[in-house]
Amino acid sequence: MEEKIASLRDVLKEADRVAALTGAGISAESGVPTFRGDEGLWRNYRATDLATPQAFARDPELVWEFYNWRRELISKVTYNPAHRALVELERIVPGFTLITQNVDGLHLLAGSRNLIEIHGNLWKVRCTKCREITLDRSPDMGTSPECKLCGGLLRPHVVWFGESLDPDILQQAIATSKACQVMLVIGTSSVVQPAASLALEAKSGGAVVAEINLESTPHSPFMDFTLHGKAGEIVPKLVENWA
Ligand code: BJW
Ligand code: ZN
């Protein structure tokens, strides 16, 4: 493992366009539940009851209860050494871009700035009537929060199943993936599209792709590096002894 980490670090040192694609696993060590797996959110909650536009249309109060519970939980946790290591990588690599599927805001809190949040952000809300997007960090939004501008019902500014990603944001993520020389794929099960295909874009653009995950994923077979273990332990090692 240490050898693999050292050779990936050597590859990173040679690159000036590096991308990282993160998923829920990077925040697991901060105490944020992942979606899939034994401890995952979708084990106790059905995604179709909570994370689809149909669920919100049917029962907005239930969906808000779920998001308030997550707001409350995430408001009490903070970033971990893996988030910090990506901030460090942004500082040392000239063209570093972080693409995250996470909506928890922990990359921003840690200090990442060149960041593309492809599934939105839990701390933003969007009016279902006038579409205004606002930042609101209240841990409890109530179950029928209203827009201050028009009185419309607010919804979380996140991307649910069956919804399209913001086309500009998706384009930015695709362009970054196609152009990078190295992509680190950290803590994602690589099953949700179109996010998962970004690693394929990187690979077919000639990038070295590296997966950091507790376990294998459907994308492991085409990875140049697979590092099995905790993101909070492996990612910081990639930025150690850089000079
Ligand atoms: C660790 C660790 C540690 C743990 N260290 N590692 C093509 C084919 C098939 C289906 C589709 C397709 N195109 C579109 C679809 C449908 C759907 C989809 O992909 N379904 C699949 C599940 C089959 N996609 C969509 O609907 C997308 N929209 C779209 O494509 O629009 C166009 C369209 C419209 C209409 C019809 C068809 C197409 C939108 C997807 C939006 C996903 N939204 C969510 C919720 C966000 C809001 C919220 O959080 O509430 O995003 S779902 C959830 O999954 C969340 C995540 O961002 C996303 C990915 O999950 P992630 O991050 O990978 O987490 P996990 O839990 O799955 O994995 C964690 C990993 O970490 C594991 O591997 C662990 O081992 C690892 N781990 N601890 C390192 N310490
Ligand atoms: Zn409004």
What is the number of helical segments per DSSP (H or I, 4+ residues)?
A: 11
CATH fold-level label of the largest domain: Rossmann fold
Strand content: 15-25%
| Overall morphology | elongated
Secondary structure class reads: alpha/beta
Q: What is the topology, as strand order, of the major beta sheet?
A: 3-2-1-7-8-9
Instruction: Outline the low-pLDDT stretches.
Output: none
CATH architecture of the largest domain: 3-Layer(aba) Sandwich
What is the number of beta strands? Answer: 9
In total, the number of domains comes to 2
Main CATH class of the largest domain: Alpha Beta
| Name given to the CATH homologous superfamily of the largest domain | TPP-binding domain
Q: What is the helical fraction, as a range of percent?
A: 25-40%
Can you list the ligands bound to this structure? ligand BJW, zinc ion
Major sheet size, sense and barrel closure: 6 strands, parallel
Give a quick set of tags describing it.
alpha/beta, Rossmann fold, 6-stranded parallel sheet, 3-stranded antiparallel sheet, 11 helices, 38% helix, 19% strand, binds ligand BJW
